[in-house]
């Protein structure tokens, strides 16, 4: 098998169908499925003639465009492995990634090749390819070749190496095989109702691969996709006018930014995830665009997707529960994912368990604990096993992934998220259970004037940061309900660099400590 087998089929069946459209300066460029496959074959030949062989790894540092996807697919076609490093996590991640897994080639934009001047790790890579001319690099693709079949590989052959965000420690390397990505596409295509010939505004790289496998057209969003919150809504609206776009999957920060700019387009369907999706934002979209179908998708690097929730299917009692601190509803697990809620062991390694031993730590419906999942599209381990001890549970031949998320299952088998297990707050005197952040934050964000909220503990105190302006009576009531010691109004609450939507709790604690000291 090979991931590119499906592209070869589509190129033969629909050679003139557009695969990608992107903005390039003042004009737009596009590529058909037929032409894309020709580029992929040429790229694979260029890699081979440069001395690369099946099983070699190519490190990619390149912005999202058609050339990137052609080079990525050429890597798969040739039976090589692609490795991506998110520079938003910092330059040090390049050295960390190459220590974990050396690369035999480097594919980058001319600007990214400048990193070689101050990165010894990059300079050690023997072959360098550039999408445009750059000194001391090989232009790509250099050679043309007749269209030929992809290398036939075992399902266990590595295809794609990426790194987790490192929100709970040092980033871990997730290695996805051809078989894994095929299973992931099957789950995504059903969860996101992907159908041939649909036109999707693309913001998430892995979803573009699923679009291709589904025979869809991907319009690459005219934005800096490394910073979703900085999207220019006017440029997105212009793309909506030029192309028959009906759907979009993106970080909640992407959609929130367009709402704030009063530039939210009339999508037929919106899929959002990768970070907590609060109902207050979904209500804003629904009020302004009642005909738009809103779907939240829950998943992670290691398990994408786990579940989805159609906003229109939320019952009145579900909305009331979210407004009153009971967590975030993220829906039923999909047909490919098995889920359990276990006792929260706070990231501590667990020994290999028998089925009876696993059942003994599994909690009943309605009881909050740690969410664990398994399935063909759920990562069974990290590169070189680094990180497996604290994130995997072996139950006979089944490997369960510990998401690190706290939540519970309701009587309908739906998942409710409560926040990261590591972010829970210990119970105070008179309380019988810990307090998780999402419930409080979701409730706070329903208050008029609150743009973002974050609950943390600091030296035994519960602190609530509020971004925006809220009335004192509303905040006082919330403070009393959750036994919060102090509320801090802030201009900006720190969030992650990748999705611009996950609270950076460690950074927030430092800021709150400084504010407390200054206030004292």
Regions with little confidence, pLDDT below 50 for 5+ residues: none
Largest pleated sheet? 14 strands, mixed
- Number of beta-strand segments: 24
β content, as a range? 25-35%
Q: What is the total domain count?
A: 3
CATH topology of the largest domain: Rossmann fold
Bulk shape: globular
Number of helices: 17
CATH class of the largest domain reads Alpha Beta
Report a brief summary of the structure:
With 520 residues, this protein is an alpha/beta fold. The chain has three domains: 5-179, Rossmann fold; 299-421, Luciferase, domain 3 (Roll), CATH 2.30.38.10; 426-519, ANL, C-terminal domain (GMP Synthetase, Chain A, domain 3). The chain is built from 17 helices and 24 strands.
Could you walk me through the main structural features you see in this protein, from its secondary elements to its overall organization?
This protein is an alpha/beta fold and 520 residues long. The chain has 3 domains: 5-179, ANL, N-terminal domain (Rossmann fold); 299-421, Luciferase, Domain 3 (Luciferase, domain 3, Roll); 426-519, GMP Synthetase, Chain A, domain 3 (2-Layer Sandwich). It contains 17 helices and 24 strands. Strands 1, 2, 10, 11, 12, 13, 14, 15, 16, 17, 18, 19, 20 and 21 form a 14-stranded mixed β-sheet that branches. β1 (18-24) and β2 form a beta hairpin. The radius of gyration is 23 Å and the shape is globular. Residues 9-383 form the AMP-dependent synthetase/ligase domain. It holds the Pfam family AMP-binding. This is Olefin beta-lactone synthetase. Keywords: Ligase.
